[in-house]
Design a protein that fits this description.
disordered N terminus; 4-stranded antiparallel β-sheet; 178 residues; alpha+beta; Cyclic Phosphodiesterase, Chain: A
Length: 178
């Protein structure tokens, strides 16, 4: 069992915004350098991870989440440049405020489940492309991706992913704007 699978098995649900327009561009990099991609997670921006354990998500929780997400209007977002922090290569959405607002609303509604277990003071919305310490990857990655930027998408829903065994699967979707 990989380290990613062992980690994910402990936190078995996540709320994400899928970015299908990014998949053909960043997918090959993610497959090689992002452990979540190997476990079935598409190109995305995380709204909240980890969220409520799957066994505790019932019809009431799903209904409450649907009502919460329906309060937000769909929005257009653009990913225009590749950024890097020590071992993570990623893209920041523009605007990022709608993602921050979604994360904050979910966190306030379910305060027992802070983003990333409260490990970060500032949760920066992002689309991870690679987790790597290989020195030449960032330059090659940027050269490959740059001609395809910006990547634009319209956010119309949030997906609930559930981890089962060794793969993440979509277990519910919540439309924005009702």
């Amino acid at each position: 069992m990989s380290d990613a699978v062992e980690f994910f098995a402990q936190q078995d649900s996540a709320l994400i915004v899928r970015v299908p327009e990014a998949e053909p561009i960043v997918g090959p990099w993610r497959t090689q350098h992002d452990s979540s991609a190997a476990a079935g997670v598409p190109a995305h921006v995380t709204v909240l991870f980890p969220w409520i354990p799957v066994g505790r998500i019932d019809a009431d929780v799903l209904s409450d989440m649907a009502d919460l997400i329906a309060r937000f209007e769909p929005f257009t977002v653009e990913f225009g440049r590749v950024e890097r922090i020590p071992d993570v290569i990623w893209m920041r959405p523009d605007p990022e405020a709608p993602f921050r607002d979604l994360t904050e609303a979910v966190s306030l509604t379910w305060p027992d489940f802070p983003p990333y277990r409260g490990r970060f003071d500032d949760v920066i919305p992002h689309l991870t492309i690679a987790e790597t310490d290989v020195p030449n990857i960032p330059g090659t990655l940027e050269e490959t991706i740059r001609p395809h930027l910006p990547i634009r998408t319209v956010v119309t829903e949030i997906e609930l992913l559930a981890f089962a065994g060794d793969q993440w699967t979509v277990s519910a979707t919540f439309p924005l704007g009702g």
